[in-house]
Amino acid sequence: MSLTSVVIPTTPFEGQKPGTSGLRKKVKVFMEKNYTENFVQCILDALGDKLKGATLIVGGDGRYFSKQAINIIIRIAAANGVAKLIIGQRGILSTPAVSSLIRTHKVLGGIVLTASHNPGGIRNDFGIKFNIENGGPAPDSFTDAVYELTKKISQYKFTPDLDCEFSQTGTQTFEVDGRQFVVEVIDSSDDYVTLMKEIFDFGKLKELIRGDGSRPPFNVLIDSMNGVTGVYVTRIFVEELGASPDNNVRRIIPLDNFGEIHPDPNLTYAKDLVDKVKDDTTYDLGAAFDGDGDRNMIIGKHAFFVTPSDSLAVIANNLDCIPYFKSKGVHGFARSMPTAAAVDRVAAKLGKEMFEVPTGWKYFGNLMDAGRLSLCGEESFGTGSDHIREKDGIWAVLAWLSIIAHKNMSVEDILTEHWKTYGRNYFTRYDYEECDSDDANKMMAHLEHTIADGAFVGKTFTAEGKTYKVKQADNFSYVDPIDKSFTKNQGIRVLFDDGSRVIFRLSGTGSSGATVRLYIDSYEKDNVTCSAQTMLKPLINVALDISQLKKFTGREQPTVIT
Ligand code: G16
């Protein structure tokens, strides 16, 4: 049957400005008449002439409203001359899997339906982001263009009678306006599993998890937090590596409301996992992922916590345990600005280039494409390499298991050995979620004003008997070394003369209100086994003093401490 597209008049919505990683709003906002349609049309318009005849990947973490959004995308894409959509079965694709598929199939890009670690369900969040040809999140220049289009959109193209099933794999062909339009529904995990098998030695990992003649099974507890990784965890950990479906994995069925939990792998929202690993001392490693599978948290026996900054440094120091890097070689390392500088010390020792970029995975892409970056990470529980252009939760756990298999050491011993070699960057992050936006903006303005005072550099602050002298203070900006694009206002940094730092930023991933993030980082050469909260207390008090955070936000305590 030949289908005909129509043009539907619409009017702009305010606030369709993508944040750190795509547009994230309450589900009810996306459900408003034409809201999703407008945004999807603007993404396609921003692609310009390249769109006609192109192929796009579509999928996401399966959260509430995903199926409706995919139906909208199918009908708009067909009407706009897209030749083919490759969709994950039931709309399910993790964010790393989308990145991999874009690269494997060499297509124009992908539309990812997720609000990542934000809660899902009808009362919570939905999100849409676009990933470009290299597999990575679209750069600011693209998302800015989309935003400009959303402010003046007056119509979108739609194929109302196009009904397309995506619950089963297979290829469907339609004729729309006399052109062929193909939808290929693929298995959600095949491509990703193949990629992981190319990167890691699955035989060795299986021996670790199942045990062999020389050592007992290494007991893991992998927690998908009811998010999309359940599909991949089942394939990789249970079917390929022989983990027990009863004892080694949990919450592996993706639910559209994540079972009413906050699918964010940190010590607060993954406390359940932390408690289990603490209580059951047979567990050697626990790991959790977020809703769309790009974040990860690693804990060792007795729930020994590995900060994401340390995780990155340890992986950097042990890349020779991973076959992929042995064959491809190791180029530079990178981290986002608020991430503690532990990896910088590894880069210095190994003689690798080191980059410090703004918060957001999109800032790593150009460096990887230019062959200057192999491994990078962020304090926000993101770790990944140039195998794709997104951070990758499952990859990070497989990297850790490869290191453990190679060194035959516990997570804690690996960390302790690392700190003895390099010293330790003590790090903590305080999040003050859902603050009033005006209050948060006033606090940031106060900080801008404070650091602009010529007398601020050189000033001293004392808390609990420790004195810190300001060496440098700025609002972080970045010039991309490859395309020279300039990004400013990326967070207020106060650097002290002993190497400690405090950083203030507003989150770019929330859907309402403002989240203030306070990052604290301090380096110790020898004193490496203290509690981070004790060690950093004076610096935290200095940060609260400089920012006047309690006065501006009315908050006595953070909502999340990492
Ligand atoms: C997203 C980006 C990350 C970034 C994080 C920061 O994470 O992909 O690169 O570090 O946001 O979040 P915020 O702006 O809230 O500090 P995700 O996992 O939400 O896609």
UniProtKB/TrEMBL annotation:
One Gene Ontology cellular component: cytosol
Primary location: cytoplasm
Intracellular or extracellular location(s): Cytoplasm
EC number from the UniProt entry: 5.4.2.2
The entry's keywords: Cytoplasm, Isomerase, Magnesium, Metal-binding, Phosphoprotein
Alpha-D-phosphohexomutase alpha/beta/alpha domain sequence ranges: 16-156, 191-299, 312-422
Single GO term (MF): phosphoglucomutase activity
Cofactor needs: Mg(2+)
PROSITE patterns: PGM_PMM
Domain of life where this protein originates: Eukaryota
InterPro entries the UniProt entry points to: A-D-PHexomutase_a/b/a-I, A-D-PHexomutase_a/b/a-I/II/III, A-D-PHexomutase_a/b/a-II, A-D-PHexomutase_a/b/a-III, A-D-PHexomutase_C_sf, A-D-PHexomutase_CS, Alpha-D-phosphohexomutase_SF, PGM
Catalysis performed (reactions): alpha-D-glucose 1-phosphate = alpha-D-glucose 6-phosphate
Gene Ontology biological process terms, A to Z: carbohydrate metabolic process
CDD domains, sorted: PGM1 (cd03085)
Family: Belongs to the phosphohexose mutase family.
Protein name, entry field: phosphoglucomutase (alpha-D-glucose-1,6-bisphosphate-dependent)
The species this protein was found in: Zophobas morio
